[in-house]
Structure formats: structure tokens, C-alpha cells
Amino acid sequence: MVIDKGKNTFDCLEDAVDYFAKIYEAVPHTVIREAIEYCIKNPDKYPEGYKDINLRKVPKPKQPKEKVIEGAVEIFDVPDDPRVKMIKHKEGATLITADEAIELQAKIDEALKKQEKDDEAKHKRELLDEKLRLAKARVARK
């Protein structure tokens, strides 16, 4: 933990991000970068409840958690959650994002429609063959 020295001028954005990343170890670099960029673009705006924010208080890092998937499919809203260090699936299935799941579902739906058409055509063919056999049997009896 580095003590904040009250430094407020930096040579470049990377220096500022590195400086604040050392102070707030639990905060990801992207969050720090976005906060700095917001402050640069909007110097007169403050976030909601800014008077209640205690910058001297050290943020506690969230404890890593283990996620066990028990069902067949589970979609994560935030697949890059830094708290989820390990993801296990009882069946050893592959994890995919929501966008990939949508694409996969579209392909599955298309394949099912094609299979239904093929099954329907096969069923019609079987009915036609059966009627043909019955017709041949009637002709052979006469």
C-alpha cells in the first residue's frame, strides 16, 4: 500500500494510471484510466455523492470466488468478472459468451428446421412407399 502524496500533475496518462494503481491496488487499471479521462474531459463535473467519497479509505479487494456450473447452460452477464478466478463445470463443457450463445442458438434452430424438413420428407416417402406396396399387392391378387 502506497500513501497518497497528493500529487496532481503527471507527464502522461500512463504515469497517472500507474500512480493511482499503486494507491488503489484493488481497482482495475481500466477503471482508473476511465475515471481520469472523465475528469480531464469534464473538469467542472463531479460524480454523484462526491462529497461522501472518502479517498483516504483503502478499498478492500473482493475475495476471489469459484463458480461451479451445475446446469447444462449458464450465461454470464459479465464473463470477465475479475473476482471469478476459477470456473468449473461438472460435465467439462465449454463456456461461451452471450453473443456466442445467440449465434450458436441460431445455428441450432436452423439445423432443427432442416432436420424437421428432412424427417417430414422421409415420413412422406415412407407413406408413399407403403401405399405403393399395398397397390402392388392388390394388383398382384387380381
Structural commentary:
The protein is mainly alpha-helical and about 140 residues long. It has a domain at about 1-60. Helix content is about 50%, strand content about 10%. The chain has 3 helices and 2 strands, in the order ααββα. It has helices spanning about 15-25, 30-40, 100-140; strands at about 65-70, 85-90. The chain has a two-stranded parallel sheet with strand order 1-2. Helix 1 packs across helix 2. It is rod-shaped. The termini are far apart.
Q: Please report the distance between the alpha carbons of the first and last residues.
A: 101 Å
The number of distinct helices, counting runs of at least 4 residues, comes to 3
For the largest beta-sheet, the strand count, sense and barrel status come to:
2 strands, parallel
Our Rg estimate from Cα atoms comes to 31 Å
Secondary-structure element pattern, one letter each:
HHEEH
Widest sheet: strand ordering: 1-2
Beta-strand residue percentage = 5-15%
What's the mean pLDDT score?
77
Tell me, briefly, the overall form.
Answer: rod-shaped
Question: Low-confidence parts lasting 5 or more residues at pLDDT below 50?
Answer: none
Please state the structural category: mainly alpha
How many strands appear in the DSSP assignment? 2
